[in-house]
Design a protein that fits this description.
Layout: E1 2-6, E2 9-15, E3 22-29, E4 32-38, H1 40-57, H2 63-70, E5 85-94, E6 100-106, E7 112-117, H3 119-134
Parallel strand pairs: 1-7, 4-5
Antiparallel strand pairs: 2-3, 3-4, 5-6, 6-7
Helix pairs in contact: 1-3, 2-3
Amino acid sequence: MNNLGPAERFLVGAVGPPGKRRFYFQVVADGNRHSLLAEKQQVQALASQGWRSLQRSGVVVDTEAVEAILATDLDIVDPAGREDFRVGTINVGIRPSGLMNLSFESDRDEQGLMFMVSPEQFRAMVVIARKLVRAGRPICPWCRLPKNPEGHECPARN
């Protein structure tokens, strides 16, 4: 497990059109960018469960600092197949100081990254993650499956 220490930036993003998007977590620490390929469900789970944990911890999040983070360049850099690894397991811990320990482990080998983010960095990631998840393909009202841009053969309407 590679411990990066405090993250300068912690972003989430997607590359590609809806239905073919690749989701990434990107962390910049000590001037180095690390790109971690993830599933949409992992992005959604970290955002919702991590935010709930932070709220339950009683840590106060500076909303002005979150807005300042969201006002910066939030686009991820497309790693174009050069990601560090595909995410398998994600762990979240909250320190008494409010800093959050995040660890991402590979689903295939023993690679992993561990780093710290502020509650404000995490909250900004949550805001972006929720937008990304909502920006996916529309859901069919009958079968509840995503519709493809090329068309949708609904199994419920056969």
